[in-house]
Amino acid sequence: MTEELAGQIRALYTGRGLPVPPAIEGRIEVASRVGRLEALEAVELVKRRLVAGNTLGPKLVQLIQFSQLLGTGHQQTASLHARAAMKEGATVEELAAVAELALITGGLPAYVMGMDILAGIFAEEK
After folding, report:
1. The domain containing residue 23 runs over which residues?
2. How many other CB atoms are found less than 10 A from the CB of residue 72?
């Protein structure tokens, strides 16, 4: 049951053509060790339901998540959402604007993190 449930959690990402983020793999490991994969699955399903079919549309949802994650200092996950926003059609200008706005709630570190994420994406594209 444990491996089957872990596979179902991973399928929430792979079923959409996305790699399973390292943070999710880490959560699967911890939840499995403590016998709480059902709790992790519930959290992941709530996230999926909030995003799927959201009135704002996939691009704007990803831009908002990018901004929120910059403001809370979650660089790795923010980077994944920046890439997801681009996949949904966000422009570089829109992502840079989000990084600028993140400064309002997250301060200079949020702005710098956003710009560093974008610089990393550009470097990968070269």
Report:
1. 1-52
2. 13
